[in-house]
Write a structure and sequence with these properties.
The protein has 480 residues and is mostly beta strands. The protein has one helix and 33 strands. The radius of gyration is 23 Å and the shape is globular. It starts with 5 loop residues before the first helix and ends with a strand. The N terminus is likely disordered.
Amino acid sequence: MLRFSLFRAILLLFCCGGNVLAAHATHMLGGDLTYEYAGTAASPNLYRVTARIYSDGSGSVNVGTPPTAISLACSPNGCTVPTVTATLTRAAGQTVATSCTGTSESVVITTLQGLVTLPPAQWQLTAGVASRVVGITNIAQSGTVGLSLNAELDNSTGLVNSSPRFTASRPVHLVSAQAQRYSLSAFDSEGDSLVYEAVQPLTGMSLPTTTCPVTTTGTAAPHLQLNAATGELLNVAGAAGQLGIYALAARVNEYRRVNGAWQKIGSVMRELDYYASAGTNQAPAFTRVALAAAPTGQLLGQEIRIAAGQTATLILTAADTDAGQSVTLSSEVAGLVPGAAFQPLANGQGQLTWQVPAALPQGRYRLTVTALDDACPLLGHSVLTLSFLVTRTGLATAGRQALAQAPFPAPFSEAVRFQFAGRGVQPVVITDALGRQVAKLATTADGSAVWQPGAALPAGLYFARNTQGTQVARLQYSGK
């Protein structure tokens, strides 16, 4: 069982840190910055900018209140002096309990919004707050540097754009070396291509009179690996002994075909501050994704193909290995993804329905679902990232077969074993998360196969498929 809460851990680090900002409230735990086109005939260059700020909700000593307003600076054509400034004011607030003891141990997510006029240019948008949490392990003197968030918009060609929006917001807590899955995935309603990258957290932007923010001094967060194609976060087993509070920042780069060529048209950023601890609570894990019409099927780890205008109804199941704990599923996509709805069911199940808009552009889209246990004192959770390919054709998942044996171990560091259904030697193709072939092998006569990655392959998510594409094994490689 976990011994102390996130804020108590922060407070302990604060007390051990001596004279770090003793007179200041230090409580910010990350945030993100996005924008949405809000233009009209009278104001064709109008954009609504949204910042979400995460802060400690415990109300303890040295913890301030969530912000009610923050400054936004918009600089055209690089990091010049801002020509457009605005104040983002509080539009909503949400308290997310992280403990079984109620909201005394919680994180407050404050949404702040404002309107700005951004005529064609290459825009840098930045917002910031001064009170980053003290004691972040991988940011030097974190309590003395502010938290800054950045977004980019390149509308210099006259295009309009709404940025991608993050679909999972629950704060992350890593426990020991167990396999845990989270997500920084975002949804783009215009079908633009998204590429995710880990970046160093930013600072230096709490007033609109300064230029672009700068990176903080520190090291990369060691526990989580970001999938560049999906935004999925998977923990790195080798970092299990590194405990404390860490900051992980990610940028989502947005690409669109402009005049026949791919062009970066913008980006958004999120900083995720998380806590890594030792403990025995096992986070819940997803065990099945199936079409409601075929509940015994298995789509976990597979890309779901669907046509614009069609509806997919999925039943998701998660389980927890801790005795006596129950699991509840939830999703935030209903308020973010057009046509999406989610209904929690009993016994660790939930139903995700996505009526894909007929006008939605073809492309790949990611939706997320969260599984939450009722551990005490700290709750455990995991996030599943579902991949959809929207095309002109219909659902192409019903023909998929369940594996005779799921990949083991998961994740793996040396070799992984799995077994396809059916007898006889079968060719197997191994691809990375971007669909690039990295290996070819064959099963034995009983359909089983063992894959040992080459020394040059990086840690990450890989897929093993038969030549018909009817069986897919999801292989999580933690690296050697």
